[in-house]
DNA sequence: AATATCCGCAACCGCTCCGAC
DNA sequence: CGTCGGAGCGGTTGCGGATAT
């Protein structure tokens, strides 16, 4: 045992000798001395800790240096006094070179933190009241067109920051769309997203009944949360039950893994827009689904059965009473009435969104029925969007 | 009334971009 | 052309108030 441990330590030390110990002001002799003492006295744990300590020092020294000394700067909420210092500094010196601001303004804060405080809260042109329906509508339309590029969206909303828009989307709009049965990522009805998934998932061409074997239906029913009753009574949203219920993942061939429906939807969305959602790769997602909901006819909500496995049929089966009800979906979309009004200062953007969404659902369905894959549809949509949103998608977009 | 849970928002984190050198 | 550092961005976290139990 000792021999094995000594061999392991020897190997680790040989590796360590390749590291430039001078960076840590540690001489190879000192390193060798510590190692030798540990081995001679069988202090393997101590020596392992020593090696880990060296490695952690290297990771700190070799990595990118922090913008400030995190341990010595104040964090958390800002006090009125600190706000006043920032305001006074900016009034005298203007913005820029934020790393020097804490020192010059007499603040014990990270410069980056100062910049964020200014841009997200203290800027005099910011609005601090709640979002208007027009702003809400614009955010939804732009998100459908360009995805989660919050800074781009915020620049079309005077007085709003990207953080404001992002928070409002995450806390209000995303949930609102989901309640309406609209996928907030693709801006498509969830039923169609699921249908699209069925056509691209590589699922074998078997009957729905066979595919149901992937799902532990009984367990799903047992795990379903009780139906919530909407205040509106007869217009009870069946969709809302999808938020509460639990289903089991069959997409990943883990039939009995218990997941919330939201998780399943997330997986669906992440698969349909695989590696396209989120910042680094949102292009396909955003380009694939620029839709203004009012453009969609009620007929468009019920996609024809183009693929061998139809998610709509799957979800509308008796067992899945929580699934999307087309009638409620239509009602919800009528309530939204996205195109009822056009924001005055952004007619161009909204017009572009509306222009490119004409018959969008029919378009997708037609494309799929013509043998286009879902990805083909996204790429086609990309081309359309580039034509419809030249000012948003061009690098030369003028804010 | 006390506690738990939910929700919204401010702030932070890590990464990328971009201009200066 | 490569490096460095400031600025910007999107995702995530955590706090504090509101609401439910």
From TrEMBL:
Q: Which residues cross the membrane?
A: 7-27, 39-58
Q: Where is this region: Disordered?
A: 226-246, 270-299
The compartments listed are: Nucleus
Q: Which one of the record's GO molecular function terms can you name?
A: DNA binding
Q: Which SMART domains match?
A: SANT (SM00717)
Q: Which residues lie in Low complexity bias regions?
A: 270-282
Q: Where is the Myb-like domain?
A: 70-122, 123-173
Organism, per UniProt?
Answer: Vigna angularis var. angularis
Q: Which gene encodes it?
A: Vigan.11G031600
Among InterPro entries, the record links this protein to:
Homeodomain-like_sf (IPR009057), Myb_dom (IPR017930), Myb_TF_plants (IPR015495), SANT/Myb (IPR001005)
List GO BP terms, alphabetically: anther wall tapetum development; pollen development
Name the domain of life. Answer: Eukaryota
Q: Which UniProt keywords apply?
A: Developmental protein, DNA-binding, Membrane, Nucleus, Repeat, Transcription, Transcription regulation, Transmembrane, Transmembrane helix
Query: Where does the record place Polar residues bias?
Result: 283-299
Q: Which part of the chain is the HTH myb-type domain?
A: 70-126, 127-177
Q: What is this protein called?
A: Uncharacterized protein
A GO cellular component annotation here is:
nucleus
């Amino acid at each position: 045992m000792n021999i094995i441990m000594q061999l392991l330590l020897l190997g680790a030390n040989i590796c360590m000798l390749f590291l430039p110990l001078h960076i840590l002001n540690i001489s190879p002799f000192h390193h060798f001395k510590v190692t030798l003492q540990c081995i001679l006295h069988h202090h393997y744990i101590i020596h392992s800790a020593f090696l880990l300590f060296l490695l952690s020092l290297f990771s700190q020294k070799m990595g990118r240096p922090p913008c400030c000394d995190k341990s010595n700067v104040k964090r958390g909420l800002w006090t009125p006094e600190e706000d006043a210092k920032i305001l006074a500094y900016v009034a005298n010196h203007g913005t820029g070179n934020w790393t020097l601001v804490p020192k010059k303004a007499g603040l014990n804060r990270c410069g980056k933190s100062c910049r964020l405080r200014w841009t997200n809260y203290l800027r005099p042109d910011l609005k601090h009241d709640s979002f208007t329906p027009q702003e809400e509508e614009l955010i939804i339309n732009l998100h459908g067109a360009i995805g989660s590029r919050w800074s781009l969206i915020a620049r079309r909303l005077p007085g709003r920051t990207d953080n404001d828009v992002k928070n409002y989307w995450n806390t209000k709009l995303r949930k609102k769309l989901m309640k309406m049965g609209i996928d907030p990522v693709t801006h498509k009805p969830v039923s169609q997203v699921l249908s699209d998934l069925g056509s691209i998932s590589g699922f074998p061409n078997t009957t729905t009944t066979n595919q149901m074997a992937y799902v532990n239906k009984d367990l799903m029913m047992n795990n379903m949360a009780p139906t919530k009753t909407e205040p509106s009574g007869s217009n009870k949203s069946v969709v809302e039950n999808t938020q509460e219920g639990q289903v089991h993942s069959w997409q990943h061939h883990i039939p009995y893994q218990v997941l919330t429906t939201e998780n399943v939807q997330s997986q669906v969305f992440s698969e349909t827009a695989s590696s396209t959602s989120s910042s680094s790769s949102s292009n396909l997602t955003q380009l694939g689904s620029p839709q203004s909901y009012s453009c969609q006819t009620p007929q468009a909500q019920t996609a024809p059965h183009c693929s061998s496995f139809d998610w709509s049929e799957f979800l509308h089966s008796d067992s899945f009473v929580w699934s999307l009800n087309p009638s409620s979906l239509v009602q919800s979309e009528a309530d939204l009435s996205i195109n009822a009004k056009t924001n005055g200062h952004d007619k161009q953007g909204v017009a572009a969104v509306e222009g490119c969404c004409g018959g969008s659902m029919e378009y997708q369905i037609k494309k799929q029925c013509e043998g286009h894959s879902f990805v083909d549809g996204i790429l086609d949509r990309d081309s359309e969007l580039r034509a419809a949103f030249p000012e948003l998608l061009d690098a030369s977009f003028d804010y």
